[in-house]
Design a protein that fits this description.
This protein has 329 residues and is α/β, with parallel strands linked by helices. It is built from ten helices and twelve strands. An eight-stranded mixed β-sheet has the order 6-7-8-3-9-10-12-11, sandwiched between helices. Strands 2-1-4-5 form a four-stranded antiparallel β-sheet, with helices on one face. A hairpin with a 2-residue loop joins β9 and β10. α5 runs parallel beside α6. The longest helix has 18 residues.
Amino acid sequence: MNFPVKIEHLSKTYTRRRWLGKNWEKPVLKDVSLHLEENQVLGLVGESGCGKSTLCKVLLGIEKPTSGQVLADGKNVAVISKSEFKKLRRVMQVVYQDPYSSLDPRMTVRQILSEPLDIHGLKKEPQQRSTFLKELLLSVGLSENQLDRYPHEFSGGQRQRICIARALALDPKILIADEPVSALDVSVQAQILNLLKEIKRTRRLTMLFVTHDFAVARFLCDEIAVMYKGRIVERAPAEELFTNPQHPYTEALLSAVPKAGGDFPHKDKLVEWQEKSSFSEAQCPFADRCRYAKEECVREPFEIKEVFPRHECACGELPFKKQKSRFAV
């Protein structure tokens, strides 16, 4: 099966060279394998520092992988030529987290939206371009009379709509959204999420949506992959992940989400934040904080495998729960 995006055994290690002594190394991604299906939204969730944004940077070609490969539209992002990379930009676009710093304050909205068209030589006729830009702005909920205004004249939500419009200007097949609503107010977040959902439906986009907000992921995503310390520990359809989490880390994350009334529904499942030194050598990255960890976890190899249909998990002590997947036959 052909996937718009396919990541195979991807690893990324940052290295700092020193004049004296051993070089400093920090592994950020470790043997990550993912695929994005056509016309689907894959949510990538996890705590800050787990490697979500680094994965996006490697996928976009901003960073080079240490090992493994990233295929976007069938092309290996790390080794393609500049001309092929330029063509790939028409297929894959990105919406950044901060709408304030991702727009050039010296350019009008018309110039911002025209720039990708100029680079790729599209819509050259003035009348054709003007009509296209007006329709593009209308498609993201802005009016055509805002084309000649500057970014500082817009609110945060409007700026993010401009960023989305810029990403859609080349009619891409793949959209990478790196926490696009985390810098916005809650009411504005809902508007942007509804916009992304409508865009995905009408344009049949394949989308990688990075977030650490489970409520946002549940609303927008078809599938969710959970990342911890640079590894994918669980992947499942969105509703399946919420109703039947299999990995202890996913269970702990969901248990930490407060419900109405300001209480936590499952206090007993919250992560014990004090690390257990006896499990520090385990291959499972979560073993030293896991409430289910046993001595066998130190010897178990890290492996993500299918535990239910369409539901993958990397836990050597499964099954630790009795509940069954609603997708199970």
